[in-house]
Every structure is written in structure tokens, then in C-alpha cells.
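Researcher: Sequence recovery benchmark, item below. Answer with residues only.
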């Protein structure tokens, strides 16, 4: 089923999402949405007209758009059904919204509207605008630089304002994950296994130089995929992976995501370097004297993760992309300047 189709899947379509059948039934969903209609829109009625698939991770979550009508007109919401109880995601979004990343802010998140525990359903506002990925792929160099600057400023303000919540992403946890990824590459018996081993050993060395307790609120998956420009507002969504982490982690995630985007959909991994520099120049934490070392470490961790994924995939060019990722990882650990190559 393609994204955007108005189709109703059978109940057995995803057994790990047991509440999905009820959620996608317009009549049943209307009952659960009525409290929102009465309080938010001062309406005595609400009728769900249809739903539209936006994103589906089988066995984990299903994100969809809801179109409903009330006494005050038509309304669109975003819903997300989870396989597990996920009130904590709604609660985290409320805490972030309350500290100022709200509708009146230049740097924002979608407004969290409700959580329906019976359906494991998170409801939030639908924000309209242009996705960051569209700008980075089709925009002019100036437009890409401006978009990246907005992303850097959003991340800085989020880390300054948002409360620390969720599990802590500690360096040793990342190293354990990196070791597992290395084992996958070695077990695949590919020619670049030795390069992966070299990268992991260097990660071990650099990790010993990182000071602890440099914590900030973390998005967990901060990248062009999660960012939307709505007029002057920069809005970041998808809060499933929120945590507490070194602020450099989210910055590294954004940088590596741009490089992966350029490598896969443009002509070269270097095609978005100007945007990367704009992002780091606007992200004022990058001026810290130890930022380059920390950013290099987290970038290298992400390059190893990407290399493992490329090795395990069956698409053409996977090994060549994996080789590039490992080389980028080694280069990131060599850099003295985190703002540019």
C-alpha cells in the first residue's frame, strides 16, 4: 500500500498493532475524538470522514492523517498508533510545548492534542508547510543554506529550553551498539571489514577522552526527515525516540543525514557541504573548544551504523556506500575543526 492511499487494511494486516482496526474505523474513531471537538472547536458533533496513511513501521507504529468535520468546519489531525503503551511520548511533547516551543514560537513542535490509551493513539495538530528534504534536494544553494541555518537554530533553542527527560544515551551504550554493528560487517566477510575494525578501535580511543555529564534534551532522530518549514516557523516532529544525550549527538545526526541524502539522491556526498557549514555556523554550541572532538565521535558512530546497513542491504552499490561511510568515519575522527572540512 503506497503512502497517501485511502485504503482500509484488514484487521490481520498488522497483528502487532491490535488497536489499529478500531482506530481506522471512522465511526469508532469519531467517538474517541469527540472530546477534542467539544473542547478545542466548541462543537457538539464530530464525524471522521477518512484517514490517509503517512508512514507505517510494521509491528511498531502507524502514522496517518485524519479528516473530520464538526459544527465549525473541516479539520485535519495527525494520529499515530503504537504497538506498546506510549503515553510517555505525549507527555514529553507536552513538556516541550510548555517551555515555549509552541504555536507562537519561531522554533516549535506540533501541538500534542490528546492520548487515547484504549487505542494507544497519539493525536497532534497537522502542521502545513514545506519539508526540509524538499529544500535540500531542489532548492538553490542560498535556499539550502538558509534552511540549514534554521535547523541549526532550532536545535540550539530546543537544547537550551527543553527539559531533560527520557533515558540517557551514554557513550558506553553507543559503543556496545557499535560493536554489534562491527560484528555484522565482519560476519558478512566483505573486503572492508578491516576498515570497520579500525574505525571501531579508534572510537574506543576517542571515547575515553569524552567528559561525562554533558547532557541536554535529545530528539533522538534529528534530521531533514523530521523538519518542516511553516512560514517563519521551523517545526520538528516525530518524538518517538526522545531522550537525554550529549548535545553533539543530535547535531551529528543532522550532518550525517545530509551527507547520506547527498550521496543517495544528488551527485556527490559533498553536494550539501555548504548547507552543513551553515548548520554548524548557526548552531552556537559548535563554538565550544571541545565540540570538534565530540562531533567527530558521534559522526563516526553514525557512519559505522550506516555502513552496517549498507552492507546488509541488497540494493546495488551498497558495498561502495559502506566503504564511503567507513572512510568518512575515519576522516571525522581526524578533524580538528568541527565546522567544516
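Model:
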Amino acid at each position: 500500500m503506497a503512502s497517501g492511499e485511502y485504503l482500509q487494511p484488514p484487521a490481520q494486516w498488522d497483528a502487532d498493532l491490535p488497536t489499529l482496526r478500531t482506530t481506522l474505523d471512522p465511526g469508532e474513531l469519531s467517538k474517541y475524538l469527540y472530546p477534542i471537538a467539544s473542547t478545542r472547536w466548541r462543537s457538539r458533533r464530530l464525524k471522521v470522514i477518512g484517514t490517509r496513511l503517512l508512514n507505517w513501521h510494521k509491528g511498531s507504529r502507524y502514522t496517518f492523517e485524519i479528516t473530520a468535520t464538526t459544527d465549525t468546519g473541516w479539520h485535519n489531525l495527525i494520529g499515530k498508533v503504537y504497538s506498546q503503551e506510549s503515553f510517555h511520548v505525549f507527555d514529553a511533547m507536552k513538556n516541550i510545548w510548555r517551555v515555549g516551543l509552541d504555536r507562537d514560537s519561531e522554533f516549535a513542535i506540533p501541538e500534542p492534542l490528546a492520548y487515547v490509551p484504549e487505542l494507544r493513539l497519539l493525536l497532534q495538530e497537522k502542521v502545513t508547510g514545506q519539508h526540509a528534504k524538499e529544500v535540500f534536494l531542489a532548492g538553490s544553494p542560498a535556499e539550502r543554506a538558509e534552511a540549514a541555518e534554521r535547523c541549526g537554530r532550532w536545535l540550539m533553542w530546543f537544547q537550551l529550553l527543553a527539559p531533560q527527560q527520557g533515558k540517557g544515551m551514554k557513550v558506553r551504550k553507543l559503543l556496545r551498539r557499535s560493536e554489534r554493528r562491527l560484528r555484522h560487517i565482519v560476519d558478512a566477510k566483505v573486503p572492508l571489514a578491516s576498515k570497520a575494525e579500525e574505525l571501531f578501535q579508534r572510537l574506543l580511543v576517542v571515547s575515553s577522552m569524552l567528559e561525562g555529564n554533558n547532557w541536554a534534551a535529545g530528539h533522538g532522530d534529528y534530521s531533514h526527515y523530521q523538519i518542516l518549514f511553516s512560514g517563519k516557523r521551523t517545526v520538528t516532529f516525530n518524538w518517538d525516540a526522545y531522550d537525554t544525550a550529549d548535545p553533539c549527538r543530535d547535531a551529528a545526526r543532522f550532518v550525517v543525514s545530509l551527507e547520506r541524502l547527498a550521496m543517495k539522491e544528488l551527485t556527490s556526498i559533498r553536494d550539501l557541504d555548504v548547507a552543513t557549514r551553515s548548520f554548524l555556523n548557526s548552531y552556537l554550541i559548535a563554538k565550544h573548544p571541545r565540540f570538534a572532538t565530540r562531533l567527530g565521535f558521534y559522526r563516526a558512530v553514525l557512519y559505522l551504523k550506516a555502513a552496517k546497513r549498507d552492507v546488509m542491504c541488497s540494493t546495488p552499490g551498497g558495498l561502495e556506500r559502506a566503504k564511503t561511510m567507513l572512510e568518512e568515519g575515519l576522516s571525522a575522527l581526524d578533524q580538528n575543526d568541527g565546522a567544516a572540512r
